[in-house]
Amino acid sequence: MRHMMWIYAVLIFVLSEARSMDTAVRHLAFNQGTEVNLTCSNKTWNEMLFVIWKIQFQTKKECRISFNDGTNDDSCNDGKSLRNTSSALSYLHIPNFSDTDQGRYECESVYRGGNDNLAIHVAIIGPVPPSISAWLYHKDNKMVAVCKAERGKPAASISWSHMGNVSSVTNYSDGFFTVESHLELPEGMDTENLSCTIRHPHWTEERILVLKPEKGYFPWLYVLIVVVIIVILAGFLFLARKKIITLRRCQPSDTSPSKSPPAEDVEEVEPYASYVQRVNSIYNSSADFFT
Fold this sequence. Notes:
By secondary structure, the chain is of the alpha+beta class. Among the domains are: 2-124, Immunoglobulin-like (Sandwich), CATH 2.60.40; 131-210, Immunoglobulins (Immunoglobulin-like), CATH 2.60.40.10. It has helices at 2-22, 220-250, 266-290, and strands at residues 24-30, 36-38, 48-57, 63-68, 71-74, 81-84, 90-94, 103-111, 114-124, 131-139, 142-152, 157-160, 165-173, 176-185, 195-199, 207-210. It has a 6-stranded mixed β-sheet with strand order 1-9-8-3-4-5. Strands 10-11-14-13 form a 4-stranded antiparallel β-sheet, with no helix packed on it. The chain has a 3-stranded antiparallel β-sheet with strand order 2-7-6, with no helix packed on it. The chain is elongated. The relative contact order is 0.10.
């Protein structure tokens, strides 16, 4: 048994050395969203001892998919699988091919009588539409609008519905472009109709995004100003009320009974009344005399 293990180890070592010298290289490109089948060898399942696919992605960690002695091993866990054709030929199946599937696919298949080694560089054909997003945020008493077109090929173009200080940054990574445009707006400017327009060769029509405050944003500055104003008004009203109460307490209270009007002196009035009466009587006598 130990001799068989040594023989197997030597066989693997020899095959690895041969692989490093005889690995064929291919470059393939596929449309995004299509199903892709990669073939490593023209041998059938019955002839194979094992097959290993080692995948080095451009944007994520590498993984392996293998078949050995009737057992499948998959560390990718993203839908890729080893399948057979109707004639029992083995191939690697990639459903819904996307930009995250791009990379280098290395295959090693060992069968009775030999081995095949292949490296396939897989890419996307034609333009790739970007992921788009837009949002607003505050910075140094200014409103800043951001419009982003991420991981597209070629780079997208961005324009704004409002005038202002515009700055754009374009990053290139793993064969894709990310464009991010910033628009600075004066504080207090109406942003109800603010929008950005994104154009890309993959689209037949432009994309228009209406900007909204970023998720989790809350206008704390305005809330703080309102709270301060309310506190000041409440303090002013409290002091005014306290002052009024103090002034009322300081005023003397008029509790003495109201004085009745002075009584008329009858003695002083009656002589005048009698005098008037005498005058009237004399007047009457004179009147009678002349009549």
